[in-house]
Specification:
The chain has 652 residues and is an alpha/beta fold. The chain is built from 27 helices and 21 strands. The strands form four sheets. An eight-stranded mixed β-sheet has the order 14-13-12-15-16-17-18-19, with helices on both faces. Strand 18 (455-460), helix 19 and strand 19 (482-487) form a beta-alpha-beta unit. Helix 5 (158-166) packs across helix 12, helix 20 (494-510) crosses helix 22 and helix 20 runs antiparallel to helix 25 (596-616). 50% of the residues are buried. Its EC number is 4.2.1.17. Residues 491-580 form the 3-hydroxyacyl-CoA dehydrogenase C-terminal domain. It catalyses: a (3S)-3-hydroxyacyl-CoA + NAD(+) = a 3-oxoacyl-CoA + NADH + H(+).
């Protein structure tokens, strides 16, 4: 059998006594497998060898596995995308990969993919070119097409093959949303044929699948019928309408290009694949795709800020208001044991109810919801402080209140525990004045709504060490958030740049301009919501407090101050600048305007200007961190690459 063993840089192939061919991908020098151009060329050579072995009868089936614990294949090598966007290179490279996957599909013996961990993008496209797919049914397995988040769509034949397997409606939904599926959901959509409980069962089940000559069945006729005749045109129209609600075509062209491809060829999966290259190529070099790749790499870079080996099991949150309660619920959702403290149970109970609503929304079964609820405990007496690995204060933005809390618990902390404040604007040095060891206090500033916004500002005071900040960043990563380290300064990064933007819009509303028009203009520019709706979402009281900290006090005679005094604080109270029903702002008609996007650019200008100032002052280490922080914390148009990238490109 030694003669049949082959090892390349990224692959291993051998045959066994049963004439099974075992093909393993193990990308050299990387924690995850990717399909680089080099890996694809090596695979071409191996497939040619397999074809010869099949022809000679020396191989009766092939099993494709991953040699890495992290998963199957995370997709194409994104680090090559800038070079691949060259029109003189990309079409030929895509044709070559299409031809390779077609050769795998045409092999006359069963080809079985064994999937664990990540099976995404090009990895899923390769798996779909195999004849049968087995996946580990655990929490780590994730299957999907995230390409839309990079301004493209599947380009290795995945458009047609996913439609063949899942049917047009489900396949298009997966591709248009970039949603990652658990193994069970992928099985339900026919992207996976069999589930196993453990990774060590993959090889055995794959062997049986080859010996039994199993082959995946396509989607049933009732699903395929949704792509026939006028039904397909109707579906394409509805898809475009839904995509248009989430993004403008000029900002994010990829979903609309995919829908056009589906409308032209969705009734024939092979024609869909043939049309894929011509539709894909123009997207790769767009400003949108280039900037989204920049955002992706910046987001990945944030993971390097966390201290290695830091572990967290227990979190204690002080303050059961909207922010504190939602931070506690999020930590419980992410598997932490949480104690939530406030003056009494009456204050804690609403937070527990909101937590349960979050769990019901995010978790599949009642058992999972009940288990998550067991992880969050009401703790009015603060007994959880002494056991916690992380203590987060999230009370009202008043310096003296925060100082009293921290000085009262400092002696209860266990060694090595993180002591953090969720302050949105107050400098840490001022909060830490009453502490015996001010170096221990860091900032962990979450954003509202906690479950939706990924950013946590890890705030560093002049007292803090690299070790404390590294632990804070590691905790943010442990609960699935993206940490950006910022220097302690009024407003830090996000609120510092947001306030001039929001207050400028409020001033225009005070002067008589339409709030609906201003919000619509900001959205036309590329913001996820307008500045007035955002102020309502943040909370007018919070906005007023931050403005005061930044030396931009709200005039007492203003409508803004009047709303705060009347308890009309925005979304959380049911009314602010807008009335809110079921969590949605009730808006009137948008007045006509000749250039909505131009007005939006004008509105956003103070945010861009202030971001530049913040970098100059050293609040963040560099422009790249400022851009990713503002994107993650405010939703600033990712397709523009961030405020400073947009300015450099002449687009803001």
């Amino acid at each position: 059998m030694a003669a049949q063993e082959t090892t390349t840089k990224h692959w291993r192939f051998h045959t066994d006594v049963e004439r099974l061919g075992w093909l393993t991908i193990d990308t050299a020098g990387a924690g995850v497998n990717t399909l680089s151009r080099e890996a694809i060329m090596e695979l071409e050579t191996l497939v040619a060898r397999i074809e010869d072995l099949v022809s000679s009868g020396e191989v009766i089936g092939v099993i494709l596995l991953s040699g890495k614990d992290s998963g199957f294949i995370a997709g194409a090598d994104i680090s090559e995308f800038d070079a691949m966007s060259d029109f003189s290179v990309l079409p030929e490279a895509l044709k070559r990969t299409h031809a390779l996957f077609a050769r795998i599909e045409k092999l006359k013996v069963p080809v079985v993919a064994g999937i664990h961990g990540f099976c995404l993008g090009g990895g899923l496209e390769l798996a779909l070119a195999c004849h049968y797919r087995i996946a580990v049914n655990d929490e780590k397995t994730r299957i999907g097409f995230p390409e839309v988040n990079l301004g493209i769509f599947p380009g290795f034949g995945g458009t047609g093959r996913s439609i063949r397997q899942a049917g047009p409606v489900d396949a298009m939904q997966i591709m248009l949303t970039g949603k990652m599926l658990k193994a069970g959901a992928a099985r339900g959509l026919n992207l996976v044929d069999k589930l196993v409980r453990h990774r060590d069962m993959l090889a055995w089940e794959a062997r049986k699948a080859v010996l039994q000559k199993r082959r995946s069945r396509p989607a049933p006729p009732v699903k395929r019928a949704m792509a026939l005749g006028p039904v397909r045109g109707y579906l394409a129209t509805k898809m475009s309408e839904e995509a248009g609600k989430k993004a403008r075509k000029e900002h994010y062209p990829a979903p609309f290009a995919l829908i056009d491809l589906f409308e032209a060829h969705g009734n024939d999966w092979q024609a869909m694949i043939r049309g894929e290259i011509d539709a894909f190529v123009p997207l790769m070099g767009t400003d949108t795709a280039t900037n989204l790749r920049r955002v992706f790499f910046a987001s990945e870079g944030l993971k390097k800020q966390g201290a290695k080996g830091a572990k967290f099991a227990r979190v204690h949150v002080i303050g059961a208001g909207v922010m504190g309660g939602d931070i506690a619920a999020w930590c419980a959702l992410r598997g932490m044991a949480v104690t939530l403290q406030d003056i009494d149970m009456e204050r804690i109970k609403p937070a527990l109810e909101r937590g349960k609503a979050l769990f019901k929304k995010r978790l599949k079964s009642k058992r999972e919801v009940d288990t998550a609820m067991l992880r969050i405990e009401a703790d009015p007496n603060g007994k959880g402080v002494a056991r916690a690995d992380v203590i987060i204060e999230a009370v009202v933005e008043k310096l003296e209140v925060k100082q009293a809390i921290f000085s009262g618990i400092e002696d209860q902390l266990k060694p090595g525990a993180i002591l953090a404040t969720n302050t949105s604007s107050i400098e840490l040095e001022r909060i830490a004045e009453e502490l015996k060891n001010p170096a221990r206090l860091i900032g962990l500033h979450f954003f509202n709504p906690v479950a939706q916004l990924p950013l946590v500002e890890v705030i560093r005071s002049s007292f803090n060490s690299d070790a404390e900040i590294g632990k804070g960043a590691a905790f943010a990563l442990a609960i699935g958030k993206s940490p950006v380290v910022v220097k302690s300064a009024p407003g830090f990064l996000v609120n510092r740049v947001l306030m001039p933007y929001m207050l400028g819009a409020v001033k225009r509303v005070e002067a008589g301009e339409s709030k609906e028009l201003l919000d619509a203009a900001a959205v036309a520019f590329g913001m996820p919501m307008g500045p007035i709706e955002l102020m309502d979402t943040v909370g007018l009281d919070v906005g007023q407090s931050v403005a005061r900290e930044l030396g931009q006090a709200v005039p007492a005679e203003s409508k803004f101050a009047g709303l705060v005094n009347a308890g009309k604080l925005g979304r959380k109270s049911g009314e602010g600048f807008y009335k809110w029903v079921d969590g949605k702002a009730q808006k009137g008609e948008v007045p006509a305007h000749a250039d909505l996007a131009g007005l939006g650019r004008e509105l956003v200008q103070p945010l861009v200007d202030t971001t530049e100032v913040v970098v100059e002052e050293g609040v963040v280490a560099n422009a790249g961190l400022a851009d990713i922080g503002v994107i993650l914390g405010t939703g600033f148009a990712p397709f523009l690459g961030g405020p400073l990238k947009a300015r450099a490109d002449g687009r803001a």
